[in-house]
Structure formats: structure tokens, C-alpha cells
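Exercise 7.
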Amino acid sequence: MTRSIAARAQAALDHLDAATADPHFAYPARPDEAAAAQLRLANLLGIPTEQVTVTSDGLRRHYQSGEPVLLTVSDPADDHHPETTYRFIIAAPFYDDDPIYLLDACPECGADVPVWTITRITDLAPAKRRDLPADLTADDTLPYDPGHRDTCVYGPMGG
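Solution. The predicted structure, written as C-alpha cells, is:
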């Protein structure tokens, strides 16, 4: 049986309240922001919040409010696709419209960096991710990301 919108909304609010009250939720990121990011990604992917693990992204820390959070989702295998682990980052989870990025291998150095902007579930379809985006440098997400190796042309040191 499908739960009502009101019941799902209340469950989401209860999740945010519980996570905000837990000082160790996604520590050291702010629990309220981390829980909101977890809920946002779970809703986007149509999965329970329990499938989304939230951790602070120490590599990209700002040491301030709005710190990036790393979101990990394990996707079980099915008849057509192998088991996959997706890793996402939201740079400023305080803002509901901040982009969600899928971390993927940099074409130059192979490090996990934000390559794909995810706005809907269809963005994760294998057919959509067959080729890297045409212009990886369209914004400052991929270039200058601290996840790159020091010698990478896209890295903070520019190779």
C-alpha cells in the first residue's frame, strides 16, 4: 500500500528532527544540513533514506557552515546491471538548489571528482553516462577540485 503524501511528509520531518538532535550524525558536518542532503538524494533516487550514507567530505572541507557532504549509495545488482556504489557530493547542502554531483573518474588522472551533475534519476542511466560531458570545464566543478592528483591538468595546480 502506498503511503499518503502527508504520511511521507511527516516521516521526512521526523527524520530531519531525529538527525538534527543526534550530534554524531554525519559528524563533523552540521547534522541538519547532512540530514537534509540525505533526504534530498533519497527522494531524487526514489530510495529509503537508510540507503544513503552521509559523511563529511574532509577533502573538500570549508570549515564553516555549508560544508560539503559526501553521500554514498549502494545499488544492488539486478538482472541487467551489476552491483554499483555511487558517490555523490553536495557542496553547500544548506541550499536546496545546490547541485548534486556524481563523483566519477577524472579522464586525466583517474581520481574521483565531481563530473556529472545529477538533477533527476535519468541522469544515472548508463546510456546517459556512456561518454563524459562534452565540456568538462563549463563551470568550476571539475577543474580545481582538490580530489585531482597533483599532476593532473584539471587539478588545483593545473598539472
